Predict the 3D structure of the following.
Amino acid sequence: MWHGIRWLFDPTNWSGDSGLWNRIAEHMWYSLLAMVVALVIALPAGLLIGHTGRGRFLAAGTANLLRAVPTFGIVGLIFIWRPFTLWPLILALAILAVPPIMINAAVGVAATDAQVRDAAEGIGLSGWQVLTRVEVPCATPLILAGVRSAANQVIATATILGFKGQGGLGRFIFSGFGTQQYFVVYGASIAVVVIVLAVEGGFAVIQRRIVSPGLRTQTMGNVTHRDGTGSHGTGSHGTGSRGTGSLVTGSHIKVSSNERII
């Protein structure tokens, strides 16, 4: 481990096309592309499901299925289909990011206080206006939590692209294993951990900047759902919309076998 730290702080390893600066930039670029693809797919779907209440069971099944699919297996199959092609590999990473974004967006919108929603409809707001002006702002803490969780997973998993001929910090990890230079593996792994922690801290700052103190307090305390039932805990722990149950712990949502999502 100590040799890995020394390798990481060696200035000669940071310069050049194969240096750490370039590999970190590649790693973050791959992760950003995957997150953009996942957001385009998952965020509208989650908002629509939470707003209309339709497709909840399909969303639950799809999310659980995507979580069960091993990303490395998807990357391996895609490599056979399109070897050394970047976009199919980015799609594999995006699949990993879809469930937390979609579920958190749906749960956040569905958990909007029924009285707030009724008041918005009472002053003549359309369904689209209620979603964009009322439900999305109220759901922002959970949406950001889902995006943060997805980003951390994508950044940590993007190292597998190095095994399939792409760049990023995974190139150091797999080349280190291949040449038995394990200090390189340790150093690159530490760099990935540092990046994940930095992104986590960045999202914490963003959430503190754009989420009102009242919503932050509500997210950490009690949340009133559409049917008037409450939840209590860190994140939200209790019944979900229309009597369904979900457990939100930090940025993850776990669903037991006899509970439903949103």
